[in-house]
Predict the structure.
Amino acid sequence: MGGLTLRRILPATLLLAFLVAAPFFLSTYWVIILTEILTMSLFAMSFNLLFGYTGLLSFGQAGFFGAGGYFAVLTLLHGPPSLWVALAAAVVGTALLALVIGWLCVRLDEIYFAILTLGFGMMLFTTAHNWRSVTGGSDGLGGFTVPPLNLIAWQVSLFNPKYFYFLVLAVTLLGTLLLLRMVKSPFGLLLRATRENSNRVAFVGANVRRLRLFAFVIAGTLAGVAGVLFAIFNRIASPEMLHWSFSGKAVLMTVLGGSGVLLGPAVGAAIFYVLEHYITTFTTSWMIFLGAILVVLVLAFPKGVLGSVMEFFAQKRRGAAP
Amino acid sequence: MEGFLANVLNGLSWGMLLFLISVGLTTVFGVMGVLNFAHGSLFMLGAYLCMQFVRWVGSFWVGLLAGPPLVAALSILLERFLLRPLYGRDVSFQLLLTFGVMLFLDDGVRLIWGPAYHVVNPPALLSGVIPFFSQSYPVYRLFLVILGPLVGLGLWAFFSFTRWGKILRAAAMDRQMAEIVGVRVPVLFTAVFAFGAWLAALGGALAAPHQSVGPAMGERIIIESFIVVVIGGMGSFPGAFAGALILGLMNSFGTTFVPHLQMALPYILLAVILLTRPRGLFGGEA
């Protein structure tokens, strides 16, 4: 793995510097796109904790993403006007939801896991879609006021897109650090071992189901947090957030960027939005391009864009230093 | 009583369409181990081609006969050039590839025929309604209810008595053994995939007069047929039949008795079956 060498730290520092400085030189339009990219990065990285690091392909991740959004909006509508309370409610709510659903889902793996998570995700979707009195049905749940963010001494109004951007950046950064800490820990190594061969992990005495369940809960909670950001950003929590095609977005972004690298899904999210931005300027059929790109990636670059780039540099280094 | 019968018939006609698409899905999975996300798009393509033939020559029957082979031809290209390189790789990649193909086809259809819904009229022979107790019932739905078991019977005979059917079942049971006794597995894979696509497109063409033809029809049926295939037991032919009937009937009775819950019912059933019998109703023990 190697230590904290300059080569490893430098790109991350540059990226962070860019993200912090971005609102000061980019137009508001691009700040908003960056906000969306960061939100979806957190969502896609949460998915990839299951897919890339645990070997479980979930097609129901959007269920937790949307549930987080609904929990937060419901709290803002009926509870105290505090973002912290709304966020806390969403974290606790999605964690519990992920615990129950995960407890049932981790019994299966491979295709059966994918279908079962899809089923549970769609159950959450139909709940949001049909329970009109609570969730507003297909119209979604909006009409809430976004309270200012209470940072002890300051009250930061999130109506300014730049301030909201910094909130999203901070939350996504924290989520990324948490994931980084997890995948580098012995727990993360065990997770990857279950991906390679779950039987052998069981033979050495680890409880595979409990490992997977823990990863499922963390992934679901982080997806819920991303959903809170998304709902506040759009001023609405809508059933589409829970639909399986939204889960498909996380899958796409992850494959686009690369499932073997922590930041792969984030890079994928960036590519996704930038491509969408340019392609939709000349055609509405953006999904055709997306489908074609996905097919080419799966066939030719299964490691994704970031994964392939990193492999290219690794090979070059190995070639240069005999 | 007549409400009950109407529910049964509605459920059966939808169930028969589900069966046509699920049986292809389950055969492809049984033989090739590939869960095809694009299968619903092939169903949709069958419906659109049927509609196009109706526009060109004015005959539903031409669309029913000519559309599905075209879809099967397309799927041969899909299997040969896109799926084949992935057989040695992780199953997730096959799922992802077919997911990409699905996005491509769904939006492609929207590009060619537009986002609007289209109506295909049933052929003269099967249009109109027949008296049904004090009310009336569309002839076309009755036709589907009768046709479904006939197709099922035909497929059963094909799988049981013909050489190709036996080879298919043998390969589904043990791919390696089939190869050892001289079955040319690559050719078989292409044939199975094309056969599944033909069935899906046939279901699509039959569905065209039954529901409106639109770009979202593939997405809806693929999820329901996933559920059919999983609860029936993946790769199981009788399982697909039973699963399709259960889901079709649940759909019509659910709409009548528990309209709020109806959308969630298939997923609840899926979860209950997967958690109690992970290999499905007709699947073997894992």
